[in-house]
Amino acid sequence: MLLEKYMEMMKETVVIIGGGPAGMEAALSLAGRGYKVHLVEKTNALGGHLARWDRLFPQQDPAQEILNELVNRIREADDRIEVVYNAELQYIKRRMRGMEVLLSNQTLLQADAVLVACGFDLFRAERKEEYGYGIYENVLTSADLERKFKEHKVVCTDGRTPEKVAFVHCVGSRDEKVDHTYCSKVCCVTAVKQACEIKELYPEAEVFNLYMDLRMFDRYFEQMYHRAQSHYGVHFVRGRLSEVAETVDGKILIKTEDTLLGRPMKLTVDMLVLMVGMQACAQTAELAEKLDLKVSASDHFFETKDLFLRGNHTHAKGVFLAGACTGPKSLPDTLQDARSAAESIHRYLTD
Amino acid sequence: MHERFANAYDPFVIPYMIGFVFVIAYLIVALCFVVKSLPMSDRKKMLKHLFSYKIFITVKDIFADCLLHVKIWKKNKLLGYMHSSIAFGWFMLIVVGHIEIFFYAPHRVNLPYYPIFFRYFMMETETTVGGSVFFFLMDFFLLMVLSGIALAMIKRIRRRLFGMKRTTRLKWNDQLGMYALWCIFPLRFLAESFTSHISGGGFLTRGFGMIFDWFNQFMNNDALIRPTWWAYSIALMVFFLTLPWSRFTHILSEALLIYMRNAGIRETSKNNGYASVEIYSCSRCGLCLDPCQMVSGASLRQMASVEFTRNIRWGQTTQALEAASYCLMCNRCVQACPVGVNSVQLKLNLKGADVSYRYPHRYDYVESEAAPSPLATTSAWADILQGEAVTAETAGVSAAGAGKPEVVYFAGCMSHLTPRIEQSMVRIFEAAGVRYTFLDEDGGICCGRPLMLAGDRTGGEQLVVKNTEAILATGAQILVCSCPICYKIFKDTYKLEGVRVLHHTEYLLQLLEAGRITVRKSAETGVFHDPCELGRHSGIYRQPRDILYRVLNLHTTPYEGKDALCCGHSIAAEGMPYKKRRMIAKDALRKMTENPVDVLVTACPSCKRAFAEIGTTRIKDIAEIVSEQLVCPHLAAQPKK
Asked: Where are the beta strands (DSSP E) in B403-520?
């Protein structure tokens, strides 16, 4: 009994930065191996972007259910996992054994390893002024639409039911002009998901997807895409949006080109949805400096030690990475990455 | 003064004479080539200029630019002195030297080498006032040249003393010419000093000559006389022989350039004679390096104009074309060039010669723009994809003013990408009660300048024709445009009879001054960024500032007016990658907001986008600011942000 208690005291501690899916899943994995975990979340609730999502591709699972399960498991493991809300990393000091972590709320934590799982930010659609986000009322982002789904209020600003909806892919992804040359991976399939959901809600509506390439790479994605066309009758047009204007009656006039037909085209829609991509979170540079991490010059996400056997390792001793802070990831990928990070930390601490 | 040698000859004049004859021959041949490549009309202009009163202006310009280097003086006094001491000092040595001959050996005027080696061939027999004056003048100008050469040597090591952060790197041909030039005058000084106990001399040559005389106790000074004259002659020969292949060709061509420019000749095509004179007139002084933002902002030194002219001169067309496709055409280098080489036009000409065979022309879209969209019949979604015809209502003709609109508004393609500018303009028109028509509200035809800047003159002209028809058809007397790129071509190239072309900065000021709109002043601080096309290219500097004083607290930066920076996103630079463009924009924005302000105001959609992308400062177009500060109770509130 006493020995058990002693063993418990001697067990190593891990500090996790970020209470999104990656942070939560990694915390659970580490707690399951007997480690003490401090899960540091900058807001007052766990869940990250997942908390703002309605349903998840590819099978329309409710996001809330998945989030609830994660949160409940963390609550059950409260002897091992301590969640620190409204706190961010202030500084880190290396000691003979492990590190000393000071949080913004002046809590001082001892850590044998640190896991960064700070996730991603959505691309700010205002940066593409030509798409009219923040200027025209019926231009929204994929996240805005998801919120509308969640609130069961998928209507135009004047309360009308949308009759024509267009989705613009690759907003802030694969775009040299905004210095995001990478693919955000999940927007294509999200657009297909949301297009189908619109059709489910309003079977009469015309739905267009304006894409560059459709990257249906993962399990069930291709099937979703086929179903979107065969079952829901969603139109897919290969072409990038050039400009957007508002008509007198508050509709959105878009100009694009059908690059398969080689023809310019104009389209008037009631709602324009911009599929915003992922970008490195705002704290990336600051965290990189404090923790001595490397940031990729190409996509501005954190650099891992390598892409194969050390995909969760950093160049700094005892600091690990998980989730979308190392590049765009879908939710299943993020959760897997978190488990793999926990495994890497376990190996590091038992070595 | 008497001649020392009856035959007035010594073998050491031979190297000099070789160089001299060579240069004269080169000059004649080159002139023939230049004239030959000019069209007849330009040749007539050249001849006519010779007999017009304007020739006096040309002489003055040549004196001011080639000898005194007035433009360089304005940039940096030390650099100006360096250039003018060498050029003017040398020139005066030649002039005074010839006068001296007329005085003392008029029968030798026909010997071209005589004034060069005058001190060797003449001996002083008596001291006269006139003689002393000549000695003094010759020594004075020699000292002037020597000081210039000394500065030139220092400049190679300490260029910051001369106000230059960067200078050109020299290839071997330029180095050979330069070292020869550096040798000429010190050798002349030594030769004249060694000879001064025979020929006499002024404060400099005789002064040092006396020191050398003292050395005569130990060694025979006279043995050095002829070798130094030989060396002097050889240095001259080397300099002359390298002249056509070095940067120093500009000594010959610059005067011709000024003559041709004043005669009204321009670089109209790639192979035009004026263009080649411009290229040869580039002295590779490197004054265009510091202003070039490709060099300072994006480490693209090889793209600078000085390297471009070099590449053209040596037939390295691939590199020259690359530089032309990178160039922002902001005109900062043209403005900095003391010789007046219009490298931007040279680049356009080169692009033009290249583009014409690379891209075939297609104008069918110009016709289809007016007609309904072809998709209407071919697509499965015919009904929804149909192009919407422009009606009086959608064209924005306000109901109040039936008949001709007062203003035709052309936002331009770039403004379509920054809808806030268009929205603001429409709001201002309505507040002012202007009867206007929005010509390209539903997407018009491009103004043509992007094509012209890509070198495609023919393609651009097609669009000019089409747009001219559309603008004139509105019957409006004022054309307002929001994009300085369009503004420039509407103003310079279009022939819009009876239509005044105004950029919105000009028009907004008119509305304000006429009291048609009123604005309140905000507490915000701001600086104004002059867009290249509006400022340096069109000379609009005052109007935006006059507006901004009324709407915010306008601060100034060192980068205003003609010294304004480029945003790096010029449409002319079609070859430059975004990475480099962003570096330039970032650098420019950092410089302009060194003293932080609330907002950076510009008047070009392209500049706005470029700086907004950096994300460190709020960027607004001048129309947006005016629209926000409008006092107009009858209009709806400001569109949401």
From this structure: 407-410, 436-438, 478-481, 500-503
Q: Lowest-confidence range among B30-34, B218-222, B545-549? A: B218-222
Residue B417 contacts A where some CB pair is shorter than 8 Å: yes
Residue of B nearest to A265 (CA): B385
Let me know if residue A4 belongs to a domain: no
Q: Say what the pLDDT of residue A94 is.
A: 93
Strands (E), A173-303: 206-211, 235-238, 241-246, 252-258, 263-269, 271-276, 278-280
Least confident of A31-35, A78-82, B266-270, B446-450: B266-270
Same-domain pairing of A177 and A101: no
Considering CB atoms only, which of B385, B386, B578 is closest to A177? Answer: B578
Per-residue pLDDT tens over the stretch B374-411:
333 333 333 333 333 333 333 344 444 457 899 999 99
Q: Which two tokens stand for residue B366?
A: 């110009």
DSSP-derived pairing of the beta strands A206-211 and A164-171 = parallel
Predicted local confidence at residue A264, as pLDDT: 86
Identify the CATH class of B390-513.
alpha beta
Judge if A274 and A129 occupy the same domain.
yes
Among A278, A301, A318, which residue terminates a domain? A278
Reported confidence tier of residue B633, pLDDT bands at 50, 70, 90: low
Domain range for A192 is 122-278
pLDDT in tens, B206-224: 888 888 877 766 666 677 8
Q: Is residue A317 part of a domain?
A: yes
Residue ending a domain, choose from A259, A278, A297: A278
Nearest to A243 among B417, B582, B641 (CB): B417
Tokens of A28: 């659970």
On whether both A162 and A262 belong to a single domain, the answer is yes
Give Cα B185 distance to the centre of its chain: 32
Confidence category of residue B196, pLDDT binned at 50, 70, 90? confident
Domain count within chain A = 2
In a domain, A294, yes or no: yes
Within 8 A by CB and 6+ apart from B597, the residues are B525, B526, B527, B555, B617
Report d(CA B37, CA B43) in Å as an integer. 9
What distance in Å separates residue B518's CA from the closest CA in chain A? Answer: 24
Q: In whole angstroms, how large is the CA radius of gyration of chain B? A: 32
CA gap B162, B289 in Å, rounded? 14
In this structure, what are the phi and psi dihedrals at residue B299, rounded to the nearest 5 degrees?
A: 50, 40
The verdict on A289 and A255 lying in the same domain is: no
Q: Which helix (H) or strand (E) holds B59?
A: helix B54-62
Q: Does B420 touch chain A (CB under 8 A)?
A: yes
d(CA B108, CA B111): 6
Same domain as A182, residue A319: no
Residues whose CB falls within 8 Å of the CB of residue B563, separated by 6 or more in sequence, listed in order: none
Distance CA A61, CA B90 (A): 88
Task: CATH 3.40.50.1860 in chain B: give the residue spans.
Answer: 390-513
Same domain for A80 and A36? yes
* A248 lies in the same domain as A296: no
Structure token pair of residue A23: 């942070």
Q: pLDDT for A222-237, tens place per residue? A: 999 999 999 999 999 9
In contact, B347 and B573? CB cutoff 8 Å:
no
Interface of B with A in 10-29 (CB under 8 A): none
Q: Does B578 touch chain A (CB under 8 A)?
A: yes
Q: What is the CATH number of domain B525-628?
A: 3.40.50
Can you tell me whether residue B497 is helix, strand or coil?
coil
CA distances from A174 to A213, A302, B265, B580 (A): 10, 18, 48, 17
Question: In this prediction, what percent of chain B has a pLDDT beyond 90?
Answer: 69
Phi, psi at B241, each rounded to 5°: -70, -30
Cβ of B443 within 8 Å of Cβ of A235? The answer is no
Residue A266 has its nearest CB partner, among B387, B416, B420, at B387
